[in-house]
Each structure stands twice: as C-alpha cells, then as structure tokens.
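Question thread 4412

I'm putting together a teaching handout and wanted feedback from people who do this every day. The idea is simple: show students a protein as raw sequence, then show them the structure tokens that encode its fold, then repeat with a second protein so they can compare. Below is the first pair exactly as I plan to print it.
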Amino acid sequence: MKDTASHFRPAPPGGFLSRLNKILLALIVATAVIPLTLRALPGRSEKAAQDKMIATAESDLAEANMIKDRLTREVTLLMNDGEYLGLFARDKVGRGYMKPGETIFRLAPRQQ
C-alpha cells in the first residue's frame, strides 16, 4: 500500500490565502493609523476653529443686514409717508399723544 500522505502537496507559500491575509492585515493597519494621523495634523484643528469663526461672522452679518434693511425701510417711510411720520412722532417722540378717536396699542417685545 502506498502512503496516502505523500500524495498531498503543501500549498505554495505565495498562494491565494497568503495574499488575502496580507491584504487584510494591511487594511487593519490602515484603519488604525489613518484616523490617528488625521487627528494629529495641526492644520485640521485650525481649520475647524476658522470654520466656526466664519459661521459666527456670517450669522452676525445676516443679523446686521436685517437691521439695516429694517432701518432703511423705516427711513424711506419717514421721508415719503406722512401718515407714518405722524404715527412715528406720536409713538416714539411724544408718547401718549393721540388723534381724536385714535387708540394706540403697544405690544411688548418677546422676552428671550
């Protein structure tokens, strides 16, 4: 009888599974190293701080533009609308002055 163990040859060292294991090991190492490298970069944290400052500045600019638009609209009304000018004078300048038969309602601004 022949020895059956001699019929089997060992897998060559550069076989498919060996290459697959090397690729898997490289992916595991890359998965661990890349986030640590990105976290250590100094420019990344500076960019995040600058992005936050830009967002704050854009928010402030939008608020300032809204105030500017409101004041521009108010100036235009004061210059061109006599009825609004009278209402403004009675409400802002001489509080309590009303036309005969006029009722003034004042609403308090919302508390935040």
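The second pair follows. I'd like the answer to focus on this one:
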Amino acid sequence: MESSRQLSNEEQATAVAGGSSAASGAHVARTASEPMSLIDEVFARSGVNVRLCYQCGKCSAGCPMVGEMAVRPHMVMHLVQRNYREEALSSDGIWLCLTCETCSARCPKGADPARVFDTLREMAQETNPRLAPRAIGAFNRTFLDQIRSSGRMSEVGLAMQFNLRSGRLLQDATSMPALVSRGKLKVKTPPMRDVDEVRRIFANVEAVQRTYGQGDER
C-alpha cells in the first residue's frame, strides 16, 4: 500500500536533484564501470553535492573577486553540473578564489562552492599543474619554495623569484630599492629555528604524492 505521507518541499527538491548522500552514493555505485562524472567525483572527494545548486547566483553576487573573473562562481558550479571537466579545471574562477567562503555562507542550499573550488584546484594540479594561470602557479611555487627553504617568507626573495618565474622581470625594479632603503622590506630573512621539521613535512607530502601518482612539477 502506497504511503500517504507527503514529502516536504526540501525532500522533493532533494529527490529531484538526486541530492541525498545515499542517492549520490548509489549513483556512483551504478556507474562504477564507467568513467566517473565530474559531479560525482567532486562529491566523492569533498562530500559536497553540486546537484543542490539551482543557479540563484548568490555566490557570485557576494564574491569580492567576481570583477576579476571571466568564469564566476555560479558558472563554475554549472560547469560541474554539466560535466564540463576541462572547462571547470581550467577556469580562472577557481584560481582567483580567496577562500573567504562568502559564497558558501550565502548559499541557500548549502552547496559549499568554496569547498568545491578547493577540490577542483586539487584535481587540476593532479591532472596538469600547468592548468593554473602562469602568474598564480608561479606565485604558489615560489611561496612554497620559500617556506621549504627557511620556514619563513622573505618578501624580497618572494618578489624577485615570482617576477622571474612569471616573466615580469622589471616589474618592481624602480620601487623595490626605495622600499629596502626605507626599511620597508628586509633583504634577508633568517630561517626559523625548526626549519628541518618543516622540510620533513614537505618530504612527507611529496612521498604521498608519488604514491598516488601526483607529480610535483616545478
């Protein structure tokens, strides 16, 4: 006998969108023999069900970086929904994200765009580290190299190495000497006392990356 209990609006929306974790898990299981769709892979990695997104645009409306993005937060979510893997992983929106999580706080469905973007960045790095825009990739590598080397960030070293890697050799040529002479920038930053512990952390992460086939391209 069919149950007479009526579903709430939330339950109906979840059912239509395939929104419950159980439903999503079943979907992944049913397609285990096929390539996993982008939306299911994001769910498996992050626990976020992008099917809940109904493109209200609140994430983009509140994003402080939206003016710099060609592909805005709600557009990235739509790319995931439509299984446009390459477009999602190479979109500038995921790389310009500041992780301020305003989008996630504003989302009426709890779809957590910030966590989705973080997951997409990880996937992009595993697929091809060069998917990140040159300047962003250069900054990330330079910053990590600074921390690995001394456990601290050297502002002068960061600026010089970043400009070299990003092809902006003369960008700070006129302003940096004045900043150094006024004591605004330190030419040399002493390493932290326990820098060997920091290097061990990097070594452990690289070992995990090698185990799972993730390259550390420089």
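Top answer:
Good format. For the second protein you could add a caption like this: Residues 6 and 12 are 9 Å apart (CA to CA). Residues 134-150 form the longest helix (17 residues).
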